[in-house]
Every structure is written in structure tokens, then in C-alpha cells.
């Protein structure tokens, strides 16, 4: 069957929407942050003292969207911001102690979601789906 006959794009969008809504509810309940905010914290956790531009690139988001999320995370006390030593015009972000705690909590919450997915799909189905999603992401990413 073709992607059109399978209504592939529609099914992909619907699955993403339902899974994001479920994950957001789970994360908000257990951590007080959304999946998008958890993603920002995860990028900062990978490379402390990073920039909003790097976060936007890693998450494939517009810098304006990242700015709004970073502002919210700063207000929540999960991130700190300071001027870069090598470029006084630029800012760098780091996790606060509370931000590290929320990042660990988010990781646990995502582990629970991944266990739910693993209960629904076989290992082979997971591998095929992960490869297919990676291919689609790579192909549709604007360079």
C-alpha cells in the first residue's frame, strides 16, 4: 500500500498528538513541567553553559519558541543565565539544582512512557519504527 492509501501522514500526526498529550499530562503531574520544557532542560543537561541557539538547533525549533520556553524556565528557577566570558553580548544557560532535580524526574517519567510503548510493540516493531522515524526526521529537516 502507498502512504496515501494508508493515510500515513494523518496517522503519524494523530499518534504524535495523542502521545504528546499523554506525555504532557504525565510529566505535568510528576514534575510540573511540559515535555517541551523537559526537552530544553535535557539539552542543557547534555551541555552545561549552552546557548538558546544550540537548544533551538538540537530540538529543531525556532529560536523565538525557545526564547519563550527559556524565559518560563528561568522564572520557575530551573535554569540560570549569565553572560559568556568570551563574548559579553551572548548569554549561556545552565541548570539550577532544582532544574537538575526536575530533569531527573522527567527522565523517570519518560521511562514509564517508554515502558508503556514497549508493552504495546515488539522489539522488532520498535526498531523498524525508530528507523523509519529517524529517516523521516532526517529527510524533512531543513538544512
From TrEMBL:
The keyword Amino-acid biosynthesis does not apply. Pfam families: MarR_2 (PF12802). Residues 1-138 form the HTH marR-type domain. Coiled coil: none annotated. The keyword Transcription applies. Signal peptide: none annotated. Keywords: DNA-binding, Transcription, Transcription regulation. InterPro entries: HTH_MarR-typ, WH-like_DNA-bd_sf, WH_DNA-bd_sf. GO terms for molecular function: DNA binding; DNA-binding transcription factor activity. PANTHER family: TRANSCRIPTIONAL REGULATOR, MARR, TRANSCRIPTIONAL REPRESSOR OF EMRAB OPERON. This is Winged helix-turn-helix transcriptional regulator. It comes from Parahaliea mediterranea. The lineage of its organism: Bacteria, Pseudomonadati, Pseudomonadota, Gammaproteobacteria, Cellvibrionales.
Amino acid at each position: 500500500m502507498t502512504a496515501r492509501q494508508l493515510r500515513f501522514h494523518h496517522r503519524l500526526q494523530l499518534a504524535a498528538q495523542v502521545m504528546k498529550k499523554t506525555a504532557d499530562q504525565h510529566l505535568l503531574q510528576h514534575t510540573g513541567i511540559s515535555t517541551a520544557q523537559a526537552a530544553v532542560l535535557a539539552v542543557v543537561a547534555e551541555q552545561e553553559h549552552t546557548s538558546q541557539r544550540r537548544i533551538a538547533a538540537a530540538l529543531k525549533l525556532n529560536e523565538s519558541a525557545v526564547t519563550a520556553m527559556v524565559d518560563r524556565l528561568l522564572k520557575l528557577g530551573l535554569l540560570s543565565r549569565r553572560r559568556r566570558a568570551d563574548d559579553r553580548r551572548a548569554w549561556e544557560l545552565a541548570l539550577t539544582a532544582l532544574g537538575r532535580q526536575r530533569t531527573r524526574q522527567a527522565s523517570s517519567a519518560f521511562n514509564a512512557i517508554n515502558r508503556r510503548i514497549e508493552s504495546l510493540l515488539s522489539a522488532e516493531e520498535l526498531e523498524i519504527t525508530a528507523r523509519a522515524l529517524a529517516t523521516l526526521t532526517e529527510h524533512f529537516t531543513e538544512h
